[in-house]
Amino acid sequence: MISSDELETFKKSCDHFISINSFFSTSLNKTQARSFLKNSEVTEKSEPILFEIDANPALVINKQFADVSPYSEFPAESEVLFMIGSIFRLKTVKRSSDGQIWIVRMTLCSDDEHDLKQVIIDMKDHFVSREINLRTLAKLLWEMGKPDLTEKYFIRFLEQLPLQDPLLGDLYHDLGRLASYVGNLDKSMEWHKKASVVKKQNQSSITVCKFI
């Protein structure tokens, strides 16, 4: 759902570029995508809208989207996640054939588009001010209200870290806070205990180094 004012802005932006300033969750399954609209509350100032995106991975140098359904609690949703700062060219804004929703058709742009190069540079300066790793992605997914997917990305990042990595304790704390957030206090305690152990080990290492 979007506001009527936002819809008017889309209508006036055909053949222009639009940028997404957050992660953009989509589905490969059109029927599934439309089913989400049934659970949305329609008001006088809101409009049901469906985005149809043409995203050809062969034309995109830097991968800007990924199929995250294998890590989702609901794999049948066929979720595809577009990265922060993804830029699209808006093609058309039209009513669906049944007149029930608005269809916004747009195409994911590549870095090589001649008239987009300066836009890409500006967007990178604005959005990519720091490296986006799995922990960053997990935290953003948490903000999007996806705790199950958040945990899976935290765990994936955890599996990549060496045993002596200084981030290990912070990651255990993240997992502890996440477990507490979803109401699993026992699991939260386990993660926080691991974080405490890592903290003590790090302090011991520092003491030994100073002594030497």
Any overview of this molecule?
The protein is an alpha+beta fold and about 210 residues long. The protein folds into two domains: about 1-125, Toxin ADP-ribosyltransferase, Chain A, domain 1 (Alpha-Beta Complex); about 135-210, Alpha Horseshoe (Serine Threonine Protein Phosphatase 5, Tetratricopeptide repeat). It has helices spanning about 5-10, 30-40, 115-125, 135-145, 145-160, 165-180, 185-210, and strands at about 1-5, 15-20, 25, 45, 50-55, 65, 80, 85-95, 100-110. Strands 2-8-9-5 form a four-stranded mixed beta sheet. It has a three-stranded antiparallel beta sheet with strand order 3-7-6. It is elongated.
Layout: helices, strands, pairs:
Layout: E1 2-3, H1 4-11, E2 17-19, E3 24-27, H2 30-38, E4 46-47, E5 49-54, E6 65-67, E7 79-82, E8 87-95, E9 102-108, H3 117-127, H4 134-143, H5 147-160, H6 167-181, H7 185-211
Parallel strand pairs: 5-9
Antiparallel strand pairs: 1-4, 2-8, 3-7, 6-7, 8-9
Helix pairs in contact: 4-5, 5-6, 6-7
Explain briefly what this protein structure is.
This protein is an alpha+beta fold.
Essential attributes:
4-stranded mixed sheet; disordered C terminus; elongated; 212 residues; 9 strands; Serine Threonine Protein Phosphatase 5, Tetratricopeptide repeat; 2 domains; single chain; 44% helix; 3-stranded antiparallel sheet; alpha+beta; Toxin ADP-ribosyltransferase, Chain A, domain 1
